[in-house]
């Protein structure tokens, strides 16, 4: 005699219901033939962004970046006089190595503070973008002028999925990166060099030269000899104010007769 099949329990809903864990599945790449503007036979496409990994960082770094974005919005961008110390302290709190004499403008953008190093009297001007996916070092007495872009990250264009590459930038001491200049990944700028306005640096720059153009080319040497008659401006300390005069004793006249002595 056949036994009836056991009845299946009714599905539970609401509080107390259990759900079997479902593995996270990555979206399947869409076939190129499904795209209306691509014909694999006549118009092949090498780049496949549907194969690109969309989360290249560990989760801890995403949380760290979120905290930095909040801190930058609340404290870093205040255009308050003498607020540079607060900006430097905030950068150090997130792992940056910046000298106390460095200058960072409130509109400058630093992507990863923990990958930034700034030497004595190094300066980041207004609207400078430090896209430091990898380490970026700015030497002593170096100025990065407004709207300059330091790009320490790129993609491997030789692969169809174009994975992210975290690069580095090393800018020496006494360098001037002029306005709107672009310094690309894996580049070094030698000491005392000048990157002219809107120049595009994609390879190493020798020390003591001036580069300009796209791509940047050496257009001449930079003289390191000061002009004749030049003397450094020494900031003299203000003299101490004179001490406040002590109050003098009031002059009293002779006491009238019969006044008891005091």
Strand order in space, largest sheet: 2-5-8-13-16-18-19
Rg over CA atoms, rounded to whole Å, is: 33 Å
Compute the number of helices: 2
**Largest sheet features:** 7 strands, mixed
- How much helical structure, as a percent, in the residues? 10-25%
Helix and strand composition category: alpha/beta
Query: How would the global form be characterised?
Result: elongated
Q: In sequence order, what are the helices and strands, one letter per element? A: HHEEEEEEEEEEEEEEEEEEE
Number of strands: 19
If classified by CATH, what would the architecture of the domain at 58-221 be? 3 Solenoid
CATH superfamily of the domain at 58-221: Hexapeptide repeat proteins
Tell me the CATH topology of the domain at 58-221: UDP N-Acetylglucosamine Acyltransferase, domain 1
Beta percentage is: 15-25%
Q: Low-confidence segments, ≥5 residues, pLDDT <50?
A: 13-24
């Amino acid at each position: 005699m056949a036994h009836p099949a056991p009845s299946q329990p009714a599905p539970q809903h609401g509080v107390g219901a259990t759900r079997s864990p479902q593995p996270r599945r990555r979206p399947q790449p869409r076939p190129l033939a499904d795209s209306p503007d691509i014909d694999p036979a006549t118009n092949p496409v090498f780049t496949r962004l549907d194969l690109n990994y969309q989360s290249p960082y560990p989760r801890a770094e995403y949380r760290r970046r979120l905290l930095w974005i909040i801190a930058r919005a609340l404290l870093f961008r205040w255009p308050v006089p003498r607020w540079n110390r607060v900006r430097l302290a905030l950068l150090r709190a997130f792992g940056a190595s910046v000298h106390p004499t460095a200058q960072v403008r409130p509109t400058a953008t630093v992507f990863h503070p923990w990958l930034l190093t700034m030497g004595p009297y190094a300066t980041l001007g207004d609207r400078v973008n430090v896209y430091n996916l990898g380490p970026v070092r700015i030497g002593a007495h170096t100025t990065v002028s407004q709207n300059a872009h330091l790009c320490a990250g790129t993609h491997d264009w030789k692969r169809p999925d174009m994975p992210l590459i975290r690069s580095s930038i090393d800018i020496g001491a006494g360098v001037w990166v002029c306005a709107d200049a672009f310094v690309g990944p894996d580049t070094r700028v030698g000491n005392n060099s000048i990157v002219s306005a809107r120049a595009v640096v994609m390879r190493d720059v020798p020390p003591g030269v001036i580069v300009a153009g796209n791509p940047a080319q050496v257009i001449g040497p930079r003289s390191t000899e000061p002009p004749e008659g030049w003397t450094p401006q020494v900031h003299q300390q203000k003299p101490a104010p004179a001490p406040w005069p002590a109050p003098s004793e009031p002059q009293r006249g002779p006491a009238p007769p019969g006044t008891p002595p005091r």
